[in-house]
């Protein structure tokens, strides 16, 4: 009779003991990670600047004589050749000046002819004793004066004809009309700019360089890519650097020659000038997502041969828009976790994948 209560008590004790036992924790599954193998290379510092394609020579053209614009023969954007007419002045007054100069030239020639004939007669009379030396000298002086008036009339006629030719404004070189600054009916002064022509022979890239980049500018290797053709790179050579900064932007204007520019490089296009300068450091370029900082400074997770990550402190040389440049702390060939570094634990086994798993 005493055995049944004893068995019941033992069963209750075993049940209570089983309830008090803690369940075993399930093992964490291997976490998939993306890695990148560390490779050191010579540090190349690059800086990029926005540039604009401009002509090396851009000239404001104007008439060499005053007058009223009669015709405009080109528009902004037109391609022109050397000697091509751009504008024409009303040449009525200029033609009258040519006619006046021609009449004065004819009068001077007639006066010279008469003076030479008179000098010949006096010379003959003097040989016969019928003329004095004083009369002969006066006629000689009058003849020389007539020759001077004739020469002056010829020069005046040449000037008048030149002025008439200046009534047509011509392009001085092959290029593109970038601005038209006068319209028909407008009265312009001599030398006033009426058209702007950009020469197409040489093109250059114009860049505004901040003060901090001046030291790197002269030693760096420069190249240019067009926004419209980013896959094609052109050689760029620094041709000119302004001696003083712009008072508003505090930048220096730099002009880069483009010796290999082809037809794809058009005036007014936007481009990017890249300055590359090699430094003495050797760095490993890794994504910014690989960087971890738990309060003890920059570090990275390195996966060992057993597939377990270990946190290593690193020395950062520089930060870029997408990458971090590591100087020390890593070895060539190390596999660095590049994504999800905030969710890793030391010693946790990881599984390296080629693409992100969801």
So what's the CATH class of the largest domain?
Mainly Beta
CATH architecture of the largest domain: Beta Barrel
User: pLDDT average, as an integer?
Assistant: 86
Q: Could you tell me the number of beta strands?
A: 22
Q: Roughly what percent helix?
A: 25-40%
How many domains?
A: 4
Low-confidence stretches: none
Q: Give the helix tally.
A: 4
SSE string, helix = H, strand = E? Answer: HEEEEEEEHHEEEEEHEEEEEEEEEE
The shape is: rod-shaped
Distance between the termini: 65 Å
CATH third-tier fold name of the largest domain: Elongation Factor Tu (Ef-tu), domain 3
Over the alpha carbons, how many angstroms does the gyration radius reach? Answer: 45 Å
Strands of the biggest beta sheet: in what spatial order?
A: 3-12-15-14-13-16
In what range is the share of β-strand residues?
35-45%
CATH superfamily of the largest domain, by name, is: Efflux pump adaptor protein, beta barrel domain
């Amino acid at each position: 009779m005493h055995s049944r209560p004893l068995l019941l008590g033992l069963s209750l004790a075993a049940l209570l003991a089983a309830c008090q036992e803690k369940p075993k924790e399930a093992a964490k599954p291997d976490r998939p990670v993306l890695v990148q193998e560390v490779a050191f290379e010579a540090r190349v510092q690059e800086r990029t600047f926005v540039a604009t394609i401009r002509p090396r020579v851009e000239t404001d053209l104007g008439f060499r004589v005053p007058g009223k614009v009669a015709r405009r023969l080109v528009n902004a954007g037109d391609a022109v050749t050397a000697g091509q007419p751009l504008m024409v002045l009303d040449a009525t007054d200029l033609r009258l000046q040519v006619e006046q100069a021609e009449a004065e030239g004819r009068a001077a020639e007639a006066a010279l002819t008469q003076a030479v004939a008179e000098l010949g007669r006096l010379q003959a009379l003097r040989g016969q004793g019928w003329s004095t030396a004083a009369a002969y000298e006066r006629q000689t002086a009058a003849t020389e004066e007539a020759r001077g008036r004739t020469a002056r009339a010829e020069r005046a006629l040449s000037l008048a004809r030149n002025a008439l030719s200046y009534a047509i404004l011509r392009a001085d070189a092959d290029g593109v009309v970038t601005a038209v600054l006068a319209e028909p009916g407008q009265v312009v002064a001599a030398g006033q700019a009426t058209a702007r022509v950009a020469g197409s022979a040489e093109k250059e890239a114009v860049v505004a360089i901040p003060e901090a980049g001046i030291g790197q500018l002269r030693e760096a290797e420069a190249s240019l890519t067009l926004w419209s053709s980013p896959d094609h790179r052109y050689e760029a050579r620094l041709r000119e650097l302004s001696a003083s900064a712009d008072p508003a932007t505090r930048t220096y204007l730099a002009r880069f020659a483009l010796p290999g520019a082809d037809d794809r490089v058009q005036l007014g296009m936007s481009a990017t000038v890249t300055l590359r300068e090699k430094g003495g450091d050797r760095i490993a370029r890794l994504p910014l997502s690989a960087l971890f900082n738990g309060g003890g400074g920059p570090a990275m997770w390195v996966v060992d041969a057993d597939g377990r990550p270990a946190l290593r402190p690193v020395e950062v040389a520089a930060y870029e828009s997408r990458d971090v440049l590591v100087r020390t702390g890593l070895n060539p060939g190390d596999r660095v976790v590049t994504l999800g570094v905030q969710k890793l634990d030391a010693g946790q086994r990881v599984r390296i994948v080629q693409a992100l798993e969801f």
